[in-house]
């Protein structure tokens, strides 16, 4: 805590009184931006109620004046807005982190502009969302009493990603596009998740996935020094690992990429992974609903926390059951052209060498709907316009999605995503 106003520059400042001091030297502590300053004062008329707004004028001789601007009607509380973003003793303050977030957005847009990308804006409300079974979607409802509003005429959903519409733009001839937008996933909460989050997504026509992986590292090097406190000066390439190599090395499990769920479960049990899979073994015995994702990600949880501890790493060539919208790798049967970036055990980005085959895409969507049904999730309409667009011919392309909230966690060393948001869901 600052001991006086001496370090404030000449000029006018605005402060909130956060507490009175009665021990030793009487005075009051003021909060200016996100720093505390103590003002010793014997004049009772200059003691203002806690929570009050005051104007502080610092003259060229270092003298100061205090003027009351607004009394507080209620006492300061830790859960109130007065201290929500600049809680005393919390460093870095949430206000400071939001300033870094602002800089992150500015510099990210600058990098894409310098690299000749076009910024796009696509709808947040769509008729055909991603049907992948692990997504818990947010459906949008209107309030029209006559069922005449467009939201009443057919189901509508908030996007989990702007992917489908951006790919339609690739079909239309756009070659390098990016977007920063809000995305929504209903079931994701915790220190690394929030149901509403900010996604950076970009696509390059006629580019390989490796080129987009390079984009990520180049963007981070551009941000180095631009975001206060973040310095990443190394030109060393980020390691590129393969999923099957990690499974073999860390768990002793050989992957072919084409295992049925039961086969993968049995392989894992044979390698001593019983404790991680105990409930799934019971599930298998009592039901036929076992799915590949459930088994795989129980095992992946044993690997993920240690990824990218020294520097970010890429994990490439994912099993085909986890291909999502990635193309199969012709030289690695059973595996897809998919890569994820990890730093400090956190997934930052997810990219695909994009699937352009409309028949295969429809087959995957239909399988997703079957998996949604098995998981007792609501069925959703498929994005027919996206599927029709693929029929027109999408150029060979690659795409990348990067969570900007998580990127800011890594850049600042903060552990909870709430600290880099203006408001979390439970604060609205």
Automatic annotation (TrEMBL):
Q: SUPFAM superfamilies annotated for this entry?
A: Class II aaRS and biotin synthetases
Q: Name one GO biological process term.
A: lysyl-tRNA aminoacylation
A GO CC annotation recorded here is: cytosol
NADP found in the keyword field = no
Does this entry carry the keyword ATP-binding? yes
Q: Which InterPro entries match?
A: Aa-tRNA-synt_II (IPR004364), aa-tRNA-synth_II (IPR006195), aa-tRNA-synth_II/BPL/LPL (IPR045864), EpmA (IPR004525)
- Can you provide one Gene Ontology molecular function annotated for this UniProt record? tRNA binding
Q: Do you know which Pfam families this protein is assigned to? A: tRNA-synt_2
> What are the alphabetically sorted keywords of the record?
ATP-binding, Ligase, Nucleotide-binding
Q: From the Swiss-Prot or TrEMBL record, give the protein name.
A: Aminoacyl-transfer RNA synthetases class-II family profile domain-containing protein
Q: Which organism is it from?
A: marine metagenome
């Amino acid at each position: 805590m600052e001991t006086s106003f001496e370090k404030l520059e000449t000029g006018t400042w605005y402060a909130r009184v956060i507490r009175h001091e009665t021990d030793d030297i009487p005075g009051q502590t003021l909060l200016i931006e996100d720093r505390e300053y103590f003002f010793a004062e014997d004049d009772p008329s200059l003691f203002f109620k806690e929570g009050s707004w005051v104007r502080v004028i610092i003259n060229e001789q270092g003298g100061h004046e205090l003027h009351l601007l607004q009394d507080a009607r209620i006492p300061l509380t830790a859960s109130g807005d007065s201290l929500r973003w600049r809680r005393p003793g919390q460093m870095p303050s949430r206000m400071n982190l939001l300033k870094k977030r602002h800089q992150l957005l500015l510099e990210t847009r600058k990098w894409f502009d310098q690299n000749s990308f076009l910024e796009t804006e696509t709808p947040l409300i769509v008729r055909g969302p991603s049907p992948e079974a692990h997504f818990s979607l947010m459906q949008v409802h209107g309030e029209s009493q006559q069922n005449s509003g467009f939201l009443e005429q057919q189901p509508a959903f908030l996007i989990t990603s702007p992917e489908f519409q951006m790919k339609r733009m690739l079909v239309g001839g756009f070659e390098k596009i990016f977007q920063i937008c809000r995305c929504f996933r209903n079931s994701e909460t915790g220190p690394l998740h929030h149901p509403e989050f900010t996604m950076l997504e970009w696509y390059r026509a006629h580019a390989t996935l490796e080129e987009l992986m390079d984009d990520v590292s180049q963007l981070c090097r551009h941000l180095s020094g631009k975001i206060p406190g973040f310095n990443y000066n190394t030109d060393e390439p980020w390691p590129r690992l393969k999923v099957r190599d990690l499974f073999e090395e860390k768990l002793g499990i050989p992957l072919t990429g084409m295992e049925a769920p039961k086969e993968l479960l049995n392989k894992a049990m044979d390698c001593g992974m019983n404790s991680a899979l105990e409930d799934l073994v019971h599930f298998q015995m009592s039901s036929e609903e076992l799915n590949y994702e459930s088994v795989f990600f129980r095992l992946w949880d044993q690997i993920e926390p240690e990824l990218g501890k020294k520097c970010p790493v890429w994990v490439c060539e994912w099993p085909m059951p986890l291909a999502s919208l990635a193309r199969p790798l012709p030289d690695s049967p059973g595996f897809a052209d998919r890569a994820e970036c990890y730093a400090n055990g956190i997934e930052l980005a997810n990219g695909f060498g994009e699937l352009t085959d409309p028949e295969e895409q429809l087959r995957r969507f239909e399988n997703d709907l079957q998996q949604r049904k098995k998981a007792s999730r609501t069925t959703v309409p498929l994005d027919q316009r996206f599927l029709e667009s693929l029929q027109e011919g999408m150029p060979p392309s690659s795409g990348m999605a990067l969570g900007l909230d998580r990127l800011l966690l890594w850049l600042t060393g903060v552990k909870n995503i709430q600290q880099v948001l203006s408001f979390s869901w439970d604060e609205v």
